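User: Can you fold this complex?
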Amino acid sequence: MSATTEEIKKKPSEPLFGKKNRKLLTDPLDDNNPITVQVLGICSALAITVKLEPAIVMTISVMAVMGIGNVVISAIRNLIPNRVRIIVQLVVVASLVILVDQVLKAFVYDVSKQLSVFVGLIITNCIIMGRFEAFALANGLWKSFLDGIGNAFSYGLILVIVSFFRELFGAGELFGYQIIPSSWYVENGGFYENNGMMLLPPMALIVVALIIWFQRARNTKLIEEN
Amino acid sequence: MKLLRNFLDTIKPNFEKGGKLEKFYPAYDAFETFAFVPGHTAHSGAHIRDAIDLKRTMVTVILAMVPALLFGMWNVGALHYKAIGVDASLLDAFGYGAFKVIPLIAVSYITGLGIEFAAAIMRGHQVNEGYLVTGMLIPLIMPVTMPLWMVAVSTAFAVIIGKEVFGGTGMNILNVALTARAFAFFAYPKNMSGDKVWIDTTTKSGESLVDGYSGATALGEMAGSGSTSFSAMDAFLGFIPGSIGETSTLAILIGAAILIISGIASWKIMASAIVGAAVMGGIFNIFAGYAISPEQQGFMGIPFWHQMLYGGFAFGVVFMATDPVSAAQTERGKWIYGFLVGFFAIMIRIFNPAYPEGIMLAILFMNVMAPLIDHYVVEGNIKRRLKRVNA
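Assistant: Here's the predicted assembly.
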């Protein structure tokens, strides 16, 4: 058997977690990160990263919306008239977000109150629309699912890193538990004081910028030529 | 001096190409050129010939700050002894103040220069001399009770985020010392504002002598009640609570004279900032009757020239707004930039009682706007000259 026929035979039966599919999951983590490389979805990264818990709930919500949304769009991609595709995409996201919102209200009411309007604003998260347009409209179900999960997870990863630093230095807590010993604080005779700037939105931008700096310094693919 | 030269010459081979400590050449170079005027001249491109280089310029600025620094040290001690009700001689007051202020200066220099040296060695650049001035400015614009580690954190933030990420000295968008202060102001508001932080009531060993002694700044009082207990003369001479270096307008004016005579700072920026503040202060004087509250009415109603004596206005205008890197570069731009600095400083001060110190935010805001001003000044110039050519 010659080499060329082998290749043709292999193509249709790519394993579920073959190299290409795995790349769909891992690519957004670093080389193509939606926040740090494409700089999308910044608004929610500023708004809900004051504490870890809402950031994680947000991550899970976006993963659900993007995973399912990508599959739905991919399934009906040949039925959507090109002219009205944005509206169709919006309807899909909006219905998913309403579902997520109801689930949050039913099971984690406190967090849902903290996230308040930002659950609804998942609809306008540019990463989601971007993946619908750029990927789900042109790829099969399984691939779209992986792409959605991969991008949402990478988005969430940055949220979690940012909120980790902001909660730790801004409130001295993680998940609401005191991490920095309370005897360190000035009120208790120590020397320490929480950094109030960490709780303000500008600091989220600066933390994201520092992550970008760190990532670009390490990942040679992202270094731009002058 | 000879001894130092000889010492530098003996250790030099270690740092040159092929030497053991080649990597640390920037650090060596910084010390050598700091102590002695370098023997080499620039050998490429177009250059302005001048007798002093950047290091000598920076040292002049530091000299200009010395009156404010010395007065600040004395004032810290004097207010301290007044608060605890002890009569103290001039020397006692000065000694106490020096004891409290010198650690702040040391922390600022150690943190900032440490980062500068590390950055220079990592990049293989020369160590920039810009930090000499910044390191002195930072302690002068902090309250004396500021914990040392907060000064260190603010300095580190300002040097890394405000300067090094943009490429070091000469590339920063914002004034570095003010970035440190703004960071401290928003990160540790309890230690940077209010009426408890301006006067140190602890002994040298750190015990608190007076509980809850309240010593608000003149601006703090005015934002709160619409009037101040300090006379304009006191504010001019500097016998008032405030950040270490900002209190004495007189000491700052001596510094301003040094800077203007030596041609280092732009007199245009200083002059136009004063005009800007006078205009805004005058507008407030006229419209004081329309204030929304009696406190604001009192604050708006004070004679406009008093505004320039209270708070950090004078210090900011003389030492920060004239920063040659972050200010406007074009001559016409400097007039606009300075005017708006003064204008906004008074406006923020009065309209937002949460930020009684308007000059900090005004200068930072105008730092961001300076490139825009320059752009339009240059564009305008081009347009005008084109018209002349075409006509």
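The mean pLDDT of chain B is 84. Chain B has 16 helices and no strands.
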